Task: inverse folding
């Protein structure tokens, strides 16, 4: 059993300048309450690692709007004109990574691997500056692992020790990120008693979760 | 029939029974509307699902169930959800039978550019590089020209998505197959002349004697 913290307390665990992984895909499966609290707290100079930057006002797009982010590592920013504007005016530095490579780099970070080998991006701009190795006569890029200071993840259900279950396409990067950071903070739509989530259905073991955000407030 | 529907209907003729297929955002999404009767096709969305279906009725959307464009979808019986690493293992690992993607340019080697226009548009590659590198068959569904300029060109002037050639190019004018000996004109759209296709193409097309007419199904 652990105690739950407020979204504001979660936001206070994220220092200015931190490298932060945030789960979600176009805002689906993002920890919306923690994001909101980060905007309220006015965190600055984050390096944001996320699949995309959603849209203005949506998901991690709120962090972009509020000027919390100075660097983005993502696969896609095309749906957020604000990210593009800030990139062109050099307020935000953007590293674009193929989506599958981003997923594997994060997975490697959480799995104790130095990186992964992939053919994706070979000979393209995405492969510039990467080392190429041959395995069985095929060329691969060496893609280094990604780790973060903080991972912020969202789930459908959490139990009292932080075991997590995700819902449908809201899973996306969350389970990968939950393993790849020094400190992992989770928020869930519901917090249920131990035993409600059966061992076979749990996606992320609670031992990976350092802090659990309290259940949503009743309206 | 508008050009988008024509392209989508022709691409749908490439679908095979019991295969896993990923449709890109935009025009490729329309292909799902024209699956030939009797075929069971499993559609993957790279945000983590196989077996998604049409958008649910208004007010019944699940906020945790969208396609890769962020649009609400439903899940068909037998659907399965997974994380992004699994999703791309399916794509890269040779498990994806076919992908359909939009294109900005394809060159005479069959190489696709579809993820950025330097200085203008830098949306990012999303899953496109993995899809072109990993899918067994890569079909480009796009308009033949953009503002009168050919999109099928001699050499890419835009950054490549992958060095791997695509399998087939389907436009509102023609079906073109990249081969070792160049781009081969396989079919023309109904009432489109071979000469018109060649004139709208920015590189040499190999024109066999038996160029067919695009089949668009029922």
Result:
């Amino acid at each position: 059993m652990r105690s739950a913290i407020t979204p504001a307390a979660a936001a206070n665990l994220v220092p200015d300048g931190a490298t932060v992984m945030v789960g979600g895909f176009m805002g689906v499966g993002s920890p919306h309450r923690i994001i909101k609290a980060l905007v309220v707290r006015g965190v600055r100079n984050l390096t944001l690692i996320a699949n995309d930057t959603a849209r203005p006002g949506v998901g991690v797009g709120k962090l972009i709007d509020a000027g919390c982010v100075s660097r983005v590592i993502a696969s896609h920013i095309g749906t957020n004109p604000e990210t593009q504007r800030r990139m062109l005016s050099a307020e935000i530095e953007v590293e674009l990574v193929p989506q599958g490579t981003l997923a594997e780099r994060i997975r490697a970070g959480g799995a104790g691997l130095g990186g992964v080998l992939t053919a994706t991006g070979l000979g393209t701009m995405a492969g510039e500056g990467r080392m190429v190795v041959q395995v069985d006569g095929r060329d691969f890029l060496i893609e280094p692992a990604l780790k973060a200071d903080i991972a912020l993840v969202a789930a459908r259900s959490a139990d009292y020790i932080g075991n997590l279950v995700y819902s449908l396409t809201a899973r996306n990067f969350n389970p990968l990120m939950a393993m790849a950071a020094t400190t992992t903070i989770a928020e869930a739509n519901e917090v249920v008693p131990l035993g409600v989530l059966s061992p076979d259905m749990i996606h992320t073991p609670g031992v990976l979760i350092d802090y659990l955000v309290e259940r949503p407030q009743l309206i | 029939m508008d050009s988008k529907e024509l392209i989508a209907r022709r691409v749908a003729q490439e679908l095979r029974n019991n295969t896993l297929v990923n449709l890109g955002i935009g025009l490729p999404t329309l292909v799902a509307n024209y699956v030939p009767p009797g075929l069971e096709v499993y559609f993957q969305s790279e945000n983590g699902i196989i077996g998604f279906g049409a958008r649910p009725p208004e007010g019944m959307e699940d906020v945790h169930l969208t396609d890769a464009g962020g649009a609400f979808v439903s899940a068909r019986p037998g659907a399965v959800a997974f994380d992004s690493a699994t999703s791309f293992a399916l794509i890269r690992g040779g498990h994806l039978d076919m992908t359909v993607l939009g294109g900005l340019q394809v060159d005479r080697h069959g190489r696709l550019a579809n993820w950025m226009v330097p200085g203008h548009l830098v949306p990012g590659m999303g899953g496109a590089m993995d899809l072109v590198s990993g899918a067994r068959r890569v079909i480009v569904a796009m308009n033949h020209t953009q503002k009168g300029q050919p999109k099928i060109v001699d050499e890419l002037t835009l950054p490549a998505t992958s060095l791997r050639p695509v399998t087939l190019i389907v436009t509102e004018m023609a079906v073109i197959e990249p081969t070792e000996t160049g781009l081969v004109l396989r079919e023309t759209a109904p009432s489109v002349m071979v000469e018109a296709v060649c004139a709208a193409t920015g590189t040499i097309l190999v024109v066999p004697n038996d160029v067919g007419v695009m089949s668009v199904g029922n």
